[in-house]
Amino acid sequence: MTDQAPLLAVCLSVGLLLLVLLLLILTMCCLRRKKNKQDQYQELISTVPSVPAHSAPVIPVSQGFCARHGEIPFSLPPRCIPQNTAVLRDVESQEKEKEGAMKVDAQRDILAHRGSLSVRSWYPVGSVLTGLYSMTPLNEVAAPPLGMATRLCFSVEYRHSSEQLVVSLLRLSNLLPRFHSNMTLVELRLLPDDRRPRQAKARGTGPDPEFNDCLIFQVSAVCVLRSTLSVCVLSVEKDGKRHAVGRALFPLEGELGQAGRVLWRDLDPEEVMQCSELGDVQISLSYSSSLQRLSLVVLGARGLQLLTDAGVCVQVCLQIHTQMVKTKRSCVVKGEQNPIFNYRMTFKLRPQHLDDACLRFELQHPNDNRSEPPALLGVLVLGPFMYARGLQLQHWMDMINKAQEPVRMWHGLGRAI
């Protein structure tokens, strides 16, 4: 144990010496690195050229200087401490004059290049474009977007005490330009029972004529929920000629909860008279209640899709509910896409069946072989609300309202169901 003590002391002393030497080496390395950085900083400062006293401060930009990766080149502005205040004031006044001249030149440049594509030339900074903040006066009606449908503004209210349905017509919106100078009428019907239309006349012309009129229908509380309000807007010229503007059907079920609620409905525009896919047929209807007779004339057809040259004929059936009462057929017109029939026929029909009966028209190709059924070109159904809609319904209602007066109209053919 006594022999190991001197050896342990020698090892400790050697370790301490090595530690001290390591610390000295690290200290010298740090000092050398710090000195190198100070030398680089002094070198950058020395690259700044000398500037004479009392001159404007200048920040030089080094040209052709390439910085190494991880280094950012920079330079310090020279210190300028003027000793003569009078000279400083002269310098400041000269600078202000130069700034004023530059502003005048900039304004002249803007005026000279007013038509260029620069933003400053079209919208100078600081100016207010009053056109962006203009508003339409309250008493003027803004033009609706192009292609917008004609709309009717109205309200419906049912009075249970008197069993009356009150329809308040307010105004039309976006009427077509060709109807602006004409008088505007609105015909209302309560389908399926009401035959006599109520009519309201507009109090003005133009794109948005106003009505401010109330029309009353006497109907029970049980029937009103099953009824549909039919709206037809007409434009009347000075000579009395009428043009249909549009139509709409408004079911009353579920719409009578809020009394006096203002409603807007788009009108379905009347289609321009163009041939349908299968062709069109022209029918004339008239009814005499005193004679209990329904008279019709099949005038002609157009645009038919003929399959053969065998010819075309028209078959007309009077139907009440689901029962075929009577069937009649016209003569055959051969080899024409636009045949003229002028075929007149009459049917016996009581007034109480006007809401239950309909007319079914079938354009047929007769076959040489009588054992085979004729080829069907198209079908048309005219009748009340139970069977028809649109023009077909309107034709039937006009026949009832215009007693003993023929009502003529074109109808497009449809496919058999």
Task: Describe what you observe in this structure.
- The strands form 4 sheets. Strands 4-3-6-7-9 form a 5-stranded antiparallel β-sheet, with no helix packed on it. It has a 4-stranded antiparallel β-sheet with strand order 5-2-1-8, with no helix packed on it.
- The termini are far apart.
- It is built from 5 helices and 17 strands.
- A hairpin with a 5-residue loop joins strand 6 and strand 7 (242-251).
- Mean pLDDT is 76; it is low at 51-67, 110-124 and 136-144.
- It has 417 residues and is α+β, with helices and mostly antiparallel strands.
- It is elongated and about 150 Å long.
Q: Quick summary of this structure?
A:
With 417 residues, this protein is an alpha+beta fold.
Tally of alpha and pi helices: 5
Rounded to the nearest angstrom, the distance between the terminal CA atoms is 123 Å
User: How are the strands of the largest sheet arranged?
Assistant: 4-3-6-7-9
Shape: elongated
The Rg value, from CA coordinates, equals 48 Å
The number of distinct β-strands equals 17
State the secondary-structure class: alpha+beta
